[in-house]
Structures are given as structure tokens and as C-alpha cells.
Amino acid sequence: QVQLVESGGGLVKPGGSLRLSCAASGFTFSDYYMSWIRQAPGKGLEWVSYISSSGSTIYYADSVKGRFTISRDNAKNSLYLQMNSLRAEDTAVYYCARGLLFGRRFDPWGQGTLVTVSS
Amino acid sequence: NFMLTQPHSVSESPGKTVTISCTGSSGSIASNYVQWYQQRPGSAPTTVIYEDNQRPSGVPDRFSGSIDSSSNSASLTISGLKTEDEADYYCQSYDSSNQGVFGGGTKLTVL
Question: Of residues B26 and A89, which shows the higher confidence score?
């Protein structure tokens, strides 16, 4: 079955960096767009970024543009999110999700990894 | 920027029908597909409606989606409510820049 497993979350100081990973299995990873979506504690969902199947097309939310970088390694069935210049407001559970409809909808989602930005 | 607005919370009794609205801020909500996700506490979201009114396999036909162009809104209707339907529900679409957009979420209480 389709499975997405995120890793790499943790506690980081403001201004620090973190790299999230998402391991995919159960489908042909290289055929699909992939996305990152986050959820601050007790808050709603916020789309962060998506990347096309080949990696040639990438979009970011304005809130992370210039600080976050999405990438993928189709040979390793893996998605990444490099997060730099982290702020307290980046504290959230980060979900990876398979993108359908050219990345415009998300299914399924991973279980998420918690990123906490605090001094 | 394009936004989706949902009621913060709704409540209804078991066996009844509830409708959750999702109103677009500008343009026509009918121009881009709308999805609905269910999120139970401590779990990742799952799709209950995609592409306005399509139901994934495994989702009961008690769940239905629709678009009302006159009010620029999408709606999720759940009939024959069960206590297991108690969850947060999010609508989702995308804007002209291909950025994903989520509604603020609606907490459904079945009491």
C-alpha cells in the first residue's frame, strides 16, 4: 500500500536549519508530484511547497519562499525539505503528501514530523 | 490572495444531516477543484471528497460534496451522522499561482 514516512524533525534554535525527509513506498514515486504541508500546534493546515515529478517545477508559499528548499531523489524514492533561517512561527507538524491533479490535491499524507523552533 | 472561509465549528446529533460550507474570497470557486479532508485528533488528514464531489473508495456515501456558484461556495454534507464522524474538516483548493489554499477548518461535534 502507499506509504509516506517523514523524519528529521526536532528542536532547533531560531535562525537554525533542519532538513526533513519523506520516504515513499507502494507507488511509482517518480510519476507523482509531491508536497509539504504543515500544521502549527492547535491550528489549521498550511500548504508549504510542491515539486513536480521530475523536479523541474517547484512552488512555495510566500511565508517560506527564500528560506525553504524542496527537492527529491527519484532513485531513492525520497522527498526533502531544507529549512533555513527558521523562525518560531515555523513550529509545526510537517506532513508530506503525494500530489494528484498536477499537485493540486493531496493523497495520501504521511504521519508527520514535529519541528519546534525555540531558544 | 485567494482565501477559503469555513465556520469554526458545527454540531449536530447522531443520525442527522450536517453541511459545512467553504466560501471563496474572490473569483469563482467553480474554476478550480475543491477537496475536503477529515482529520481526527492525533492523526493525519485523509480525503473524504475530491474534485468537488468525488468520493474515494472506502468513504461512505453518507459524505457528499457540491459547489454553489451563486454563493461562491463549496459544501460538504454528511448524512446519517455517526459519532465516528466527529473530527476537523478542511476544504482545499488552489490559486492562480498554483499555490495550495486551505480553509481554516471546521470542528464537527456529534452529540
Answer: A89
Q: How many CB pairs under 8 A join A and B?
A: 68
- Asked if B42 is an interface residue toward chain A (Cβ–Cβ < 8 A), one would say no
pLDDT of residue B91: 98
Q: Which residues of B touch A103 (CB under 8 A)?
A: 98
d(CA B92, CA A38): 14
Interval B13-53: pLDDT, tens: 999 999 999 999 988 888 899 999 999 999 999 999 999 99
- Using a CB–CB cutoff of 8 Å, tell me whether A47 touches chain B: yes
Per-residue pLDDT at B45: 98
Average pLDDT over residues A90-94: 98
- Pick A47's closest partner by Cβ from B32, B101, B105: B101
CA dihedral sign of residues B80, B16, B104, B42: negative
Residue linked to cell 460538504: B76
| B101 with A108: Cβ contact below 8 A | no
DSSP E strands, A8-57: 10-12, 18-25, 33-39, 45-51
